[in-house]
Design brief:
- By secondary structure, the protein is an alpha/beta fold.
- It has two domains: 141 residues, Aspartate Aminotransferase, domain 1 (Alpha-Beta Complex), CATH 3.90.1150.10; 237 residues, Type I PLP-dependent aspartate aminotransferase-like (Major domain) (Aspartate Aminotransferase, domain 2), CATH 3.40.640.10.
- Helix content is 42%, strand content 12%.
- It has 14 helices and twelve strands.
- Strands 2-8-7-6-5-3-4 form a seven-stranded mixed β-sheet, with helices on both faces. The chain has a three-stranded antiparallel β-sheet with strand order 9-12-11. Strands 1-10 form a two-stranded parallel sheet.
- α6 links the parallel β3 and β4.
- α4 packs parallel to α11.
- The longest helix is centred in the last third of the chain and has 21 residues.
- The protein is globular.
- The chain starts with 6 loop residues before the first helix and ends with a helix.
- The structure holds pyridoxal-5'-phosphate.
Length: 391
């Protein structure tokens, strides 16, 4: 049978991060001693009070459809979060709850972009952005950055990339995959350009709470009413509350965009899981004391890994100020990222994600959302591997 696959679907590259993660998990299941640096999720459990709220809702029969954009209680809790954390005022009707931060991004792009539109994405980028843009029929315009600028785009770069067809600029700070964080001044300057040129900003703030070395973030929406009017914030519960499997994300947007996304959602996924939403309310309104504990642990690992990586021949690594990834430069080993990661997995049973997946072939992504013991063991193996390459 010759199945016809739509061009839309055939043009997509499957998610390489998920592929590496499942290969490493399969090797582990087969009894091999694999060290996985591929995880895009915290290694901590969801806090108990969140699980309890969900279990209680399930037991009480909260198992039916909800409004497609989420229960009022959760939309209000999210609006309160934006008020308290970011000083931003959103009505619950401007807030949409959906099935993960990824789903938020997808719905923003589908609701705002079409054929002929261009979307500016700084590289290294979260690998789903360009594929989502292609799904919408629009064109990703990639801006290259390197470790020399801590992987941040400059105002000049952004300005030069904007054309009359530019619809959206994607800003992700703290960043997956690099962990880099734009300063409030840098965010404002990029926002100023978008406001001046009439370009919308999709600001992916899912790592907002995961910061180190005293780094500060300020949402691009918060600089002026014009910035607010040009910004759609995408966010979710996956990272700072360790709820990746719950599939709960949210966004906040100017009213007409929120309305359009509500319509998209009502004809595609409908509501995110009813009882998961009750867990979401508990996550946002309950105690947040898990976070300093997790951050202290992440920070310890980050410091160790950063120092160790820079002692390995052939590798250099700028430090991350947010999220839970490091993005070392491997170009001095003479290998490109796919070959490096394939050989590393084969020779030393260490799983890392090739930078090519994020549009940066001279780098690999290492997640430190894994135990200190794993990090020590895995980095020792990477050291051994690199010593075999760089003689
Ligand atoms: C993890 C992540 C998301 C959202 O993940 P979900 O599991 O869909 O909530 C969004 N953006 C970035 C950059 C991420 O790393």
């Amino acid at each position: 049978m010759n199945y016809k696959i739509s061009q839309r679907a055939a043009s997509l590259a499957p998610s390489l991060t998920l592929a590496i993660d499942s290969k490493a998990k399969a090797m582990k299941a087969a009894g091999e001693d694999v060290v996985g640096f591929g995880a895009g999720e915290p290694d901590f459990d969801t806090p108990q009070h969140i699980k309890d709220a969900c279990a209680k809702a399930l037991a009480a029969g909260f198992t039916k459809y909800t409004p497609s954009s989420g229960i009022p209680e959760l939309r209000q809790a999210i609006a309160d979060k934006f008020k308290n954390d970011n000083g931003l005022t959103y009505k619950p009707s401007q807030v949409i709850v959906n099935c993960g931060g990824k789903h938020s991004c997808f719905n923003v792009i589908i609701a705002t972009c079409e054929a002929g539109d261009e979307v500016i994405i700084p590289a290294p980028y979260w690998l789903s952005y360009p594929e989502m843009v292609k799904l919408a029929g629009a064109k990703p315009v990639i801006l290259e950055t390197s470790d020399k600028t801590e992987f941040k785009v400059t105002q000049e770069q952004l300005r030069a990339a904007i054309t009359p067809n530019t619809r959206l600029f994607v800003l992700n700070s703290p960043s997956n995959p690099t962990g880099s964080v734009y300063t409030p001044e840098e965010v404002k300057a990029l926002g100023d350009i978008c406001v001046e040129k009439g370009v919308l900003i999709m600001s992916d703030e899912i790592y907002e709470h995961l910061l180190y070395d005293g780094a500060k973030v300020k949402s691009v929406a918060s600089f002026s009413p014009a910035h607010y009017d040009h910004t759609i914030i995408v966010h979710g519960l996956a990272k700072a509350w360790s709820m990746t499997g719950w599939r709960l994300g949210f966004l906040a947007a100017p009213e007409p965009i929120a309305k359009a996304i509500d319509a998209v959602q009502s004809h595609s996924t409908s509501n995110p899981t009813s009882f998961a939403q009750k867990g979401g309310v508990a996550a946002l309104t309950g105690p947040q004391d898990h976070l300093p504990v997790w951050l202290a642990e992440f920070d310890k690992r980050r410091r160790y890994a950063h120092t160790k990586l820079n002692s390995i021949p052939g590798i250099s690594c700028v430090n991350a100020k947010g999220a839970f990834y490091l993005f070392p430069n491997i170009s001095k080993t003479g290998l490109k990222s796919s070959e490096f990661c394939a050989k590393l997995l084969e020779a030393e049973k260490v799983a890392a994600v090739p930078g090519i997946a994020f549009g940066a072939d001279d780098y690999i992504r290492l997640s430190y959302a894994t135990s200190m013991a794993n990090i020590e063991k895995g980095l020792d193996r990477i050291e051994k591997f690199c010593k075999s390459l760089v003689k």
